[in-house]
Amino acid sequence: MSEARTITEAEAARDLTAFQRNILIILSKEPMYGLAIKRELEEYYGGEVNHGRLYPNLDELVELGFVEKSELDKRTNQYELTDEGEAAVFDQFEWALSKVVTDDDRAEDVRTIVDDQL
């Protein structure tokens, strides 16, 4: 029998879809309600984002602990990035930059900026 492997937050964050990462990036600016997130995504994608795509992904991000969901009123939920969600955004940012920034001095500058934000 093999033992079940526990997935770390960092590993879970790295397994997010691009769509889910885009939601986290949008929420890194400020807490938002669902339709505001939808509008930001539609602006980025240049087309309609279906509710059936957005809300299941938001719910999964809540379940994973990257986003916190609260009730603004009886019909509107607000979504806010958690500390874990913020760390996931910066982890992805740092990794992507490490692939682009090859100069050691510039790479160290980028790491310092990212570390200061965490």
UniProtKB/TrEMBL annotation:
It comes from Natronoarchaeum mannanilyticum. Residues 23-88 form the Transcription regulator PadR N-terminal domain. Pfam families: PadR. This is PadR family transcriptional regulator.
